[in-house]
Amino acid sequence: MLAVLLGGIGMLSMVGPPLASALTGGGIAPPSDAWQLAFVLVRALHVIAVAGALVAMFRPSANRFFRAIPA
Asked: Where do the Major facilitator superfamily (MFS) profile domain residues begin and end (predicted)?
């Protein structure tokens, strides 16, 4: 449940607005300065990190790790 809330909805909030703009014909404007380029790169890295974390949460080694933590 937590993975769906944090990963899934969080991912949609990162990818949704640019994707909606592209699908409605608005397109995605290329970055016009260094700050916008940095923002796009950081957002892309964040999306990749979230996707990787979602995959890693469901690996057997993660289950063993969380079972070993005392409650």
From this structure: 1-71
